[in-house]
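so my prof wants the structure for this chain in the tokens format not the other one, which i didnt know existed until like an hour ago. anyway here's the sequence
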Amino acid sequence: MALLTDSSHPHIHSLPVPRQQTGSDIWNPLRRWIDQIEVSDRRLAHLLCRVIPCCCPFERDISLLGRTVQIPALCELNPVYNELVGLRFRSLSHLADDCGEDVTRYIC
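here's what i got, hopefully its the right format
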């Protein structure tokens, strides 16, 4: 952790600042590729909205022998989860704004 010194404040002399990772992330090329996908085709937008779920499909409540066990949403463990959600949002926006379609069937 690096230290940031602030001489203008009388009581706080140093603040810990986390260093940014210097190593390359192996997922960055895939993230950039997904972020660069432009949704301009109606059929592609419909396909993406059908394939990318609106909510995490893994979150469940399971009743077993009178007890309920909750399986948490594991989608955020996916390294490209945010990029896929963004791609789905761009697809929904294209269908609603550019094509004038009703997208309520794709919204949970």
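also thought this was worth mentioning. Residues 49-54+73-108 form one domain.
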